[in-house]
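In this section we walk through a basic example: taking a raw amino acid sequence and producing a predicted 3D structure, encoded as discrete structure tokens. The instruction is simple. Fold the sequence below.
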Amino acid sequence: MEKIDLEGMEQKALEQFKSGQSLFGKDGAFAPLLKNFIEKALEAEMEAHLDEHQRVSGNKRNGKGKKTIKSSAGSFDIETPQDRHSSFEPELVKKRQTILADSLEQKIIGLYGLGMSYRSISEHIKEMYDTDISHTVLTQITDKIIPDVKEWQSRPLEAVYTIVWLDAMHIKVKENGKVTTKALYNNILGIDTNGQKQILGVYFSESEGANFWLQVLTDLNNRGVEDILIASIDNLKGFAEAIQSVFPRTEVQSCIVHQIRNSLKYIASKEQKEFLRELKLVYKADTKEKAKIELEKLAEKWQSKYPVVIASWQNNWSKLSTYFQYTAPIRKLIYTTNPIEAYHRQVRKVTKTKGAFANEMAVLKLVYLSTKKIEKKWSKTQNWGLIIQQLAIKFEDRVKLKL
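The resulting token sequence is shown next.
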């Protein structure tokens, strides 16, 4: 350990502070102080390690090694004590560790969770802390959250959820040198009896389909979900049947917004405003009976011109009209899958910067980190006290209020 020139350090620190230079880094005024502290701590650890038992067995000091440490204070070189038996395992700076975890690793993981690429993170760390970190080291650091991701994916769930929205988003992933598009299945739910939303699970598939959704729902069941009161879904064929094969008492509401979008694809552009104005009388009706009357009027006018569109509304009416049996606050929650689409938009803000991901785990790491941030911002569902009372009355044997 080198002797520290405190007077010289003070002068150098003042000059660097005025010029805005790093006080720690390799040439920083305070680098010798930090280096000296770490080396003294390692010496103390070695002294504690070489107890009487170690010395009797023939173990003793065996010179020193050197390594470069990277931290939020910059990069600096230290000398590390060694023992003859190589049994010394320091706690402050572990063997083969080159980054001080408490100071820099969390910053790197935080930047990764914001969607920054490894190159951008490396440039940011270099600019802020005068420290060079390779792509390999950055990967090793972010890989440390993989156990957390796996635990989160398999964590136990509540027995009953009141409302669940199910939808998928699509992500580009590299496989065998080729870029493929995969469906990333997310289950967003609010809403337990406390009115809080959360993400239940994240799953991968080559494409979106009812068969894979059946696997997803089975996994939820295996993780403790016994009942779902209402499921809001898109119009994927066989989706409702897949849900009810696992949760037979679940009320299924197909997304009205999806249905409208699909309908307008087949309506001539010059007639879309008129058609949509009359269609609104159907899905905005006060009662299911009134909506049925308006749907019949719509069919009378447009059946001959757009038979496929009208047939779609008629054939799917039982799943599209589920929400009419509820009051306005509940209708607003379930008539569309917009809540999960809003979540997807937030996730895409961080995934869009990546292009194609190296593998599925690279996607899961980023989705996990972004989801944890998103969930922190979610508050209790608006009007939940009123909503849960209404649900408890309708599903009296399935929801128990804590009074």
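Looking at the output, two observations stand out. The beta strands are 61-71, 74-83, 160-175, 178-189, 198-205, 227-233, 251-254. Residues 31-49 form the longest helix (19 residues). In the next section we compare this with other chains.
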